[in-house]
Each structure stands twice: as C-alpha cells, then as structure tokens.
Amino acid sequence: QSVLTQPPSASGTPGQRVIISCSGSSSNIGFNPVNWYQQLPGTAPKLLIYTNSQRSSGVPGRFSGSKSGTSASLAISGLQSEDEASYYCAVWDDGLRGVLFGGGTKVTVL
Amino acid sequence: QVQLVQSGGEAKKPGASVKVSCKASGYTFREYAITWVRQAPGQGLEWLGWISTYSGNTDSAQNVQDRLTMTTDKDTTTAYMELRSLTSDDTAVYFCARGGPPMWKFDLWGQGTLVAVS
User: Least CB-CB distance to A47: which of B47, B106, B110?
Assistant: First the structure.
C-alpha cells in the first residue's frame, strides 16, 4: 500500500470532468512539488503536470493540477476517449529520502 | 531525436544479476540526471534511484540500495542499472527516465525493459 493514496479507479462519460486525488503527508506533499504522469496500457509513463500545476509541453489544456496542504489533485475537463489510462502522482518524501508514487488511478471513459 | 533507448528484455534465475542500459540521444547528456523506476506486473510505479550524469553521484531507495549499482558512460551517453541477487519479487519492467533533484520531474522515458526472474 502506497504512502500516497489515490483512488484505484475513476470514470466519466465523454465531455465530463474527472478529478483524481492524491493524499499524502507533511513529509511529502506538504513541502514538496507534486508531479503527475499518464500511462497508457503497455507504454512508458508520460509527464503531464509538474510542480503542482504546470502543464508539460504538448499536454492539452483540459489537464490541470492543484495542491492544497497535504493533498493534490489532477482534473481532466472535457474527458475524451484517449484519456483512458492510469494516472500517477509522484513527490519526494523527506522522511523516506526517496520519490514516492501514488498507487495509480485507472480512468475509464464510459 | 530526443530519446532514451533501453536494452532488450532479460530472463534470469534467482540469485543472478542483471544490467540494463539506457542510451540517451538528442540532448546534452550531462545536463540531466537519470532516474530508474520499475513496475511489477499489474502494479504501480516504484522509484529505484538516480544518478548524476555530471558527477556520478547516486542515491537509491532503501529497499534496493544494497543490491543496486547505477553508472554512466559519458562517451557513449549511456546509463546503466545493475541489480544483484535477484528474486522473483524483482520481476518487473524497468524504466530509465530523464530527471532528478530538486524537481524530480521525469520528462523523458525509455521504452522499458522487462526483467523476468524465475
């Protein structure tokens, strides 16, 4: 079980807004920047959001990130079929002295 | 073309070692650290460690630090990860990624290398 808690799954119909949460603690999200990755089946992860809310180059504007206290969120607005993938939050942990990944959230487009 | 290209899949016996390579191209190798991440079948991502391509300094996760060695060859712009004393728990796809401290932003990934231990 990951120290960073994400819901295992989320779903929505095309056009809907989906929000994925990532809950941590003061030793990780509380003081360090959060990054988000998208992983399509059978492929390597892809950087979506860095430093809490900055979109990586080429990432559509419908993806946005935010952070408050010891939690972070990834929002997908205007959900599209190609957004069906697993999403991971990641952050440095000062106590463990390592990068932590959330357990991942599999997004299904209904 | 900016890319990281990893070596092919490996099948190993328990107790053996594996060395995975990650060749960088299309950018200045020494300007970015290389991080290693693995993913067991059907599981999430696990950070293993990172290496500075400039100084060679490394740091690794506590659960593998005694078995993991990361190196680089600046002449061939290739990073290597060697994991010793393999067990079935090490069966995973191993990724190299560009990036390290302080932002831990991994903006370029290799295609992954499957290491199967049985």
Answer: B106
Contact (CB, 8 A) for B85 and A16: no
What local confidence, expressed as pLDDT, does residue A3 receive? Answer: 86
Looking at the predicted structure, is the pLDDT value of residue B4 above 90? yes
Distance CA B38, CA B47 (A): 7
Residue A2 near chain B (CB below 8 Å): yes
pLDDT tens track for B68-105: 999 999 999 999 999 999 999 999 999 999 999 999 99
Distance CA A93, CA A72 (A): 14
Q: How far apart are CA A92 and CA A97, in angstroms?
A: 7
* Ramachandran area for residue B56 (φ above 0: left; ψ -120 to 50: alpha; else beta): left
Give dist(CA A55, CA B17) in Å, integer: 39
CB distance A73 to A49 below 8 Å: no
| Nearest-Cα residue of chain A relative to residue B41 | A42
Distances (CA, A) of A96 to A22, A51, B35, B61, B84: 18, 20, 17, 8, 22
Distance from CA of A80 to the nearest CA of B (A): 23
Asked whether the beta carbons of residue B44 and residue A46 sit closer than 8 angstroms, the reply is: no
Cβ atoms B81, B61 nearer than 8 A = no
Write the pLDDT tens digit of every residue in A10-62: 999 999 999 999 999 999 999 999 999 999 999 999 999 999 999 999 999 99
